[in-house]
Amino acid sequence: MVLKRLVIFYVSVLVHINNPVHAEGFRIELGDSEVVQDMESRVPVYPWFPDGHITILKNEDALQMYWAGSSSYRTVGKSVESMKLNPTKPVLSKGKQTSFDNGGAWLMSVHRFSGQNLLGFYHAEDHVWGKHPNPNKIAWKSIAICESMNDGKSWTKVGQIITSPKRKPSTPMWGGSGDFCVVYDNLNSRWVCYYQEHYLYMAISNDFRALPGSWFKYY
To answer: Kind and range of the H or E element at 140?
Structure first.
């Protein structure tokens, strides 16, 4: 039995082509539902996807998509179905054992400054709890930024921008600030981050590069 449906709606999105610009409304129509086979993306994190916010950027006549995972990947194609890994290795991976992102770096929001210069925001997880074992990968979360000078093929980590007001416990316990989305508010020339720590929170930065130390939380 085929479920027939038609949904028409208008949405407003932030489009990042050369610089953050105003979004424009557009119309989407959904017709008959159809069962299709999984995409053969060959992205290692695909079985757990979506494990974070999805970012798609225009790349000349194609699209580039970032797959947020403990290691994050970049694919390029003219459609979602034709996406191929480019490069084949992760573009962003976890840090050293002593770092705040030793458990993974989920690249969740990517924005284009100009040309091949991109700004990325990633969900970081700390899985190290001193001498306590952590087989279930319980995480203490934070949010960090990174920059790319080659259109997202590789990234340089810049540092944490949002952390929890609570001290990390000495024993494994889920917590911290993460699981977010960052958008650019063109009207007020600022970055806006929506994130969660049991509840939904918001933080802003008026720094165009969104550098650490420029973020202010709303309570």
So the answer is: strand 140-148
